[in-house]
Amino acid sequence: MGPLARLRADLSAGKNLEIYVTALIALVVGVLGVFDLVEPKVVGAATLATLALVAVNALGPRHQVAELDRRVEELGRLVEAGLPGGELLSEEVKDLHARVAHAGDIRLAGVTLNRTIRSYVDELGKALERGASVKVLVIDPSGPVPEEAARRSTIPGQPDVFEHRARSTLYVLRDLPAPRERLEVRLLPFTPAFMMILLDPADDDGVIHVELGSHRSPHAAPGFLLTGRRDHHWCRHFTAEFDRLWEVAREITDADWHPAHHP
Hints:
Elements: H1 3-13, H2 17-34, H3 40-81, H4 85-88, H5 97-102, E1 105-109, H6 114-129, E2 133-139, H7 145-152, H8 159-174, E3 183-188, E4 194-199, E5 207-212, E6 223-227, H9 232-248, E7 250-251, H10 254-257
Parallel strand pairs: 1-2, 2-3
Antiparallel strand pairs: 1-4, 3-7, 4-5, 5-6
Helix pairs in contact: 2-3, 6-8, 7-8
């Protein structure tokens, strides 16, 4: 950007006005002094006024730098002490309905995702209708994984609970009114350690919600939200976690969508 263009941009935005005023006064004083158009006392007073403006302008950045140093020091102390758990984890379920409805890359992974899929079923249908990619990972209800999930939840004698929940999730996805060409579902041979919702995870404005697994706790499972711009490293970490789960999961078959019978 050239000097004149920068001047116009600053004046239109109201930026750096004090600097331009100081420069203008100094220029006028210099011209008047050179051509002897005013008395020396006037020139001297104007010069002192210009110097005063320069001094005042110099104080602003100094105060800003001092404030920045103070805040950086406070941030350093917070990092050393560690963030309070309440600042990181929350039992409150993040409302991602609008993000799900408008995301182009949607990925979900969890044990059964029964509650999550039912909560976002309308938004997933809208996303599929406009051509979004949707990938879903849940446990394989037809193998031994429901038993593992039951043991982990401290109800070892009730694997049918997880089998029915996983099958219910598959049936909800199967019966989506939207086209399923861009819906991919795979079944995990083990119980995942956490639930994830990834929405455009490769983008700076993408988000990832991670919910930690619990062992039949009476409270909601704690979770946290990552954003691509703020948490780039951890977004890449959990995206890679999803990709690894995807690679070891098996593709769903017609027999999974439409089982002949199940308990």
